[in-house]
Amino acid sequence: MELLFNIIYFIIAIGILVAIHELGHFLAARLTGMRAEVFAIGMGKRLFGWNKINGFTFGNLDENIELGNHTDYRIAAFPIGGYVKISGMIDESLDTDFANSEPKPWEFRAKNTLQKSFVLSAGVIMNILLAIFVFSGVSYFNGSSELSTNVIGKVEPNSLAYNVGFRSGDIVNKINNESIDSWNSLIEHLTLKEFGNSLKIEVTRDSQPIDLTVDGNVIIKGLSKKEPLGISPGGIKTVVEEALKDNPADKAGIKANDTIVECNGIPINSINSLQSILKDHKNEKIELSWNRQGKNYTDSLTTTESGLIGVRLAYAPIKIIKFGLIESLGIGIRETGNSLELLLKSIIQIFKGNLSFKESVAGPLMIMDMAGEQANRGIVSFVSFISLLSISLAFMNILPFPALDGGHLVFVLIEGIIRKELPVKVKLAFQQGGIVILLLFMAFVFYNDIARMLK
Question: pTM for the full model?
């Protein structure tokens, strides 16, 4: 059942991305007076579709049908990718029937360089706008939740954080001269914001100021090998969001908004510390203390065979920040820019050897798995995931590679400079070569996905 839901979420995510991307090409083509013969979601054989000439139909269209200025909107067999077939353009269809005739006013090849460039770039522009729209919407409707602490509660032995110098109880004041006032900010600076950069970290330890200098590449290499950062927040409370009915915590009388204080006499300063104790006492009695509105309670509970007591936990204090419409738009633009910057930095780190290419590149199977995981976390996580995919799709498509939008754009710019159309044979050869290389790349990432999932 989980696999089925993952497939559904994958199709939804890819369908949205492809539809938005191709809608950009389609609208730009129509705005510039070009005919869009086909608008397809999916690749390969036409399953069904609709056009103004013969309405809704199944299967392939009659080869002799003349759509004129109308478009056939269709769903094709393979739910990866899509395309808009624009008259007078060599694209995924490899159609060159127009090559032996004079350019028609509605054809791609009859338009000027600016119009052609706009049509080719419109898909990428729409993907970027989608990311901005989603990030802005999440900021406007959800605001921002920040855990208001810069204290490290626990550092796991031999973890990344321990090896670079952090210790339990450290107060992190600044990273690269930027003040740290929340746990969100601390983790962001250690991982994404300073991706690969050297870190100068100012901490207070036992009331004494200490400077740590950390090679950012060490953190990247560790995280890429799935090593945990190994720190949990301190100076906070572990609060019960929900006590699940008929579970040990519920039977003991624990309620929502109670604060977990101790477990077996050990102070609880993080969710991880409680989970660690519970895992060591599976199906055993434990002594749990909690606080409710200033009053302390203690009781014995028997954990489940999995080492659980049936509670959903959260940290406090949480600071909720609300944003206005204009402010949210600014955040959406900034988040999109930051995501694109992180993508570029990741590619640089792959070339430097700090990130593994095989571990960093996800194919359809891994994306399907991630889509299901993000969907299970909620609608906000799922649409944010789609936004990140949209940015990746935009970046990939604008690369100056044959068969991609960027490759077509290169030909258009060359033709604009030399003021004549390149031979159809040349463009067709590059298009065919590009498609072959892309198919080989897809085969590689598909194989890589299988290898990673079988590990």
Answer: 0.81
